[in-house]
């Protein structure tokens, strides 16, 4: 998962992009980058690390210009360790383009072959985002007539990107001397929204992964970018848009609502917070229906994502809701940490149980999901160590049985706790007295009721139904082999600070 921003303003945008990345930090904590455009000059700074660690005052001073894009990353494709794969990426032909991408292409190998043998372009890293950039650059070059860049040519290029690329991609790109381009894959799997701000100098525009960035930066929401749509904002603030594909099949990722998005965001007309309340209600009904024999004294959430679900569940069951775990906010999120050893070490550093809420009680712990089970197992043991008499564990989402191929870093099927296990076996594996999962139809209904116009969601990590239609058993096997094998190491460039003169473009 990644977070992306794009802005066209009438004043310097370096601070605005930095602040926006801070608001989207939850979407990626491995790398961050900003590119600004000043006339025909791009200014870029990017590196591995959190936003606060990547940028210093000297870096910010060098990021001059009234337009730019920004990106926070955690890797789902390519190398996790190479700073060369931090984004945005840059190409100088045909016009000079920088691009940031959230998602994951599923036909990267095919595209790499096409780029090398047909497009005659070179890719420097193992990142699918760089592949996407080169496809866009090639199609833009093919669409331009008489060396004159027009919005029609840009939209034609995006339509051809949709024709060639498969998978999930929400994109922001800056074309030197021209403007900001943003587009979303034909299924709309990954989110993208835009807004505007009316200033004395004129209209300013902001595109972001989540609405929280618009709200906090003072922009009013216009709407979500539609699946298959492209929007173009010229450097003087002129807006244009185009539906670049006929009859898109809108299938946004439901896991955004379960876990990834901030609760104060609204994605595709659906409040993330309210959807999580509804998940709690649906889960409570299942407990009433199928687990009424459990003697539950208290409901305790696993901070932070599961709080709305746990609160509503407790209300519906008429059981006390308590905060039993205190979170150390200076430890990174375990879900996106590489390596089981790091994950095991981090859980007790991150959470501390308050014995007064556990001692002698039958406790229902509520989490948003169970993926590997490593964290769940240790949290349950913490509850027992704090004196809990019985520990039941509820998940606001169904069992995760399949890998996510669209940009969420989930493990292989062999590493997923629920693969090949019954609920009773899962309970034994994590040390719980009972495990309760949300049913998939209830999860979908909880989200869909907030926007009935969306009739289908990507829930592939739960049901194995991959909405792009190109994911085979062979593909999954190859993906799992790559994850367990040795990833090629790409040498890092000597510096991450770049000033790119595009006057010749």
Which key terms come to mind for this protein?
505 residues, alpha+beta, 25% strand, 6-stranded antiparallel sheet
Walkthrough of the structure:
By secondary structure, this protein is α+β, with helices and mostly antiparallel strands. The protein contains 16 helices and 23 strands. The strands form 5 sheets. It has an 8-stranded antiparallel sheet. Helix 5 packs across helix 6 and helix 9 packs antiparallel against helix 14. The longest helix is centred in the middle third of the chain and has 19 residues. It is globular, with a radius of gyration of 23 Å. The C terminus is likely disordered.
Write the layout of secondary structure elements.
Layout: E1 2-8, H1 14-23, E2 31-38, E3 41-48, H2 51-54, H3 57-62, E4 67-73, E5 89-91, E6 97-105, H4 108-119, H5 128-143, H6 151-164, E7 167-175, E8 179-184, E9 193-199, E10 202-208, H7 211-216, E11 220-224, E12 229-234, E13 239-243, H8 255-260, E14 266-267, E15 270-271, H9 272-290, E16 298-301, H10 307-317, E17 320-321, E18 325-327, H11 340-350, E19 351-353, E20 362-367, H12 374-385, E21 390-395, H13 423-430, E22 434-437, H14 440-448, H15 460-463, H16 473-484, E23 497-501
Parallel strand pairs: 16-17, 16-20, 20-21, 21-22
Antiparallel strand pairs: 1-4, 1-10, 2-3, 2-4, 3-23, 5-6, 6-7, 7-8, 8-12, 9-10, 9-11, 12-13, 14-15, 18-19
Helix pairs in contact: 4-5, 5-6, 9-10, 9-14, 11-12
């Amino acid at each position: 998962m990644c977070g992306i921003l794009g802005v066209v303003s009438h004043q310097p945008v370096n601070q605005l992009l930095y602040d926006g990345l801070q608001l989207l930090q939850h979407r990626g904590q491995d790398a961050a980058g900003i590119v600004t455009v000043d006339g025909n000059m791009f200014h870029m700074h990017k590196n591995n690390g959190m936003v606060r660690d990547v940028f210093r005052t000297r870096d910010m001073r060098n990021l001059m210009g009234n337009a730019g894009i920004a990106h926070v990353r955690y890797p789902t494709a390519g190398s996790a360790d190479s700073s060369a794969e931090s984004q945005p990426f840059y190409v100088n032909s045909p016009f000079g383009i920088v691009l940031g991408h959230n998602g994951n292409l599923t036909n990267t190998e095919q595209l790499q072959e096409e780029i090398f043998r047909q497009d005659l372009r070179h890719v420097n890293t193992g990142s699918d985002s760089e592949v996407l950039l080169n496809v866009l650059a090639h199609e833009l070059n093919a669409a331009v007539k008489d060396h004159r860049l027009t919005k029609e040519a840009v939209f034609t290029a995006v339509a051809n990107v949709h024709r060639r690329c498969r998978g999930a991609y929400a994109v922001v790109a800056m074309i030197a001397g021209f403007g900001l381009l943003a587009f979303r894959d034909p299924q709309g799997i990954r989110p993208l929204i835009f807004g505007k701000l009316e200033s004395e100098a004129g209209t300013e525009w902001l595109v972001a992964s989540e609405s929280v960035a618009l709200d906090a930066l003072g922009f009013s929401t216009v709407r979500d970018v539609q699946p298959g749509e492209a929007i173009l904002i010229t450097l003087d603030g002129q807006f244009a848009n185009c539906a670049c594909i006929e009859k898109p099949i809108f299938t946004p990722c439901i896991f955004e609502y379960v876990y990834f998005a901030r609760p104060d965001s609204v994605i595709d007309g659906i409040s993330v917070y309210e959807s999580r309340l509804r998940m709690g209600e649906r889960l409570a009904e299942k407990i009433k229906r199928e687990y009424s024999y459990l003697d539950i004294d208290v409901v305790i959430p696993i901070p932070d994502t599961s709080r709305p679900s746990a609160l509503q569940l407790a209300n519906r069951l008429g059981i006390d809701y308590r905060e039993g775990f205190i979170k150390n906010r200076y430890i990174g999120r375990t879900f996106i940490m590489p390596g089981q050893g790091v994950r095991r070490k981090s859980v007790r550093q991150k959470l501390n149980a308050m014995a007064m809420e556990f001692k002698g009680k039958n406790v229902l712990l509520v989490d948003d999901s169970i993926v590997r089970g490593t964290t769940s197992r240790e949290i349950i043991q913490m509850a027992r160590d704090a004196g809990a008499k019985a520990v039941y564990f509820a998940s606001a989402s169904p069992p995760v049985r399949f890998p996510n191929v669209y940009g969420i870093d989930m493990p292989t099927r062999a590493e997923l706790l629920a693969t090949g296990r019954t609920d009773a076996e899962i309970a034994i594996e994590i040390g719980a007295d009972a495990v309760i999962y949300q049913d998939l139809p209830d999860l979908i209904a909880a989200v869909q009721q907030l926007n009935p116009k969306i009739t289908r969601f990507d829930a592939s990590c739960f049901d194995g139904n991959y909405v792009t239609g190109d994911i085979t058993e062979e593909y999954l096997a190859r993906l799992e082999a790559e994850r367990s094998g040795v990833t090629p190491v790409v040498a890092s460039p000597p510096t991450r600070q770049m000033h790119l003169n595009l006057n010749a473009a």
